[in-house]
């Protein structure tokens, strides 16, 4: 009997111990489940607050879009070094804290950091003296319609890679008549104002439409009929002044230039004279085409995006001609709502290239289109594909549809644009567990992993 009682006592001890272990396991699982639920609830509350805040400003939820951004590893390293140096010298205003802006200046000075800093500081001083930061609001070029009669020029459409196309018909320019309508100083202000519109409106709009980073233009100069009568001292002064502004303060915004309808006279006399105003790097981007080679333009620009006087099929008859239409993604209302709305966001897919060929890595980041976020928290994925308030299902446009994606972020500073501070890695332990990210809709996101957390950083990026 005593032996049986001993065995019963041991069984009871083992049962109690088993019950205790099971209880601890249940508490551990319950705690993990509680943490997950708490994180998801916080994320849902954050997303819901974004919707409510957005509805106070606009009547629908603004979708996000994906932007492909391919970077060279060595260039990226130089950009981050330059950025840190500028921050140390207090020479990096938020509105210029942009990866691709810094890269343009580095390229202009062949990646010499000291020379780039000097160029950058001169640019900031010029902008302050010239009033460039407020020129979109402060300056009105009332004489534009008259100026276009004697200097036909303007943006029209995009090339096959999504860059804006800028066209000038120099052969129809009349400098002497132009100066009766305006002055060199006023025209230069207009020239700067158009550059600012390109940086703040046209390039972002083209990036959204093309779903890839756009930072430069394709330019066409039509020199048919151009002669010495067009190349007066006034014209030379104007060209020299514009070239100085372009080279010093808006470097590396030209992807390529076509000088078309160039006859023997232009090649022998005018082209050598014009090259005196251009730096060698710009000259290397210029291709001079005789009239019989005008069809070369169709290799880089679709016929529907090219005016008929340049061999395309577009006339813009309803708008008074192609150079008065301002045709492009920047005139698409849905795209411009994204560009101008402080709460619009985009997913940047960054691909780093080593030695021009080998891909090092690829990951996504959510960046505000304008402005920075201020809070740090984990965001739960949530699709707006089925959102009846989203305009993506209602859009009718000749430009590519904007693919909605899952994540959203609040933007606060309307003056900043495409922050450079986007070198954060993917966060694995934002809430103590791996958060599974749902499938995205954009093709550019298909290669991404589906078990990474998303975190909004203090500097506004989501890594």
TrEMBL record:
Keyword terms, alphabetized: Golgi apparatus, Protein transport, Transport
Keyword Ribosomal protein: no
Compartments (UniProt record): Cell membrane; Golgi apparatus membrane
Entry's transmembrane regions: none
Coiled coil stretches, renumbered: none
Protein's recorded name: CRAL-TRIO domain-containing protein
Biased composition (Basic and acidic residues): 11-28
Cellular-component GO terms for this entry: Golgi membrane; plasma membrane
Matches recorded under Gene3D superfamilies: CRAL-TRIO lipid binding domain, N-terminal domain of phosphatidylinositol transfer protein sec14p
A Pfam family this chain is assigned to: CRAL_TRIO
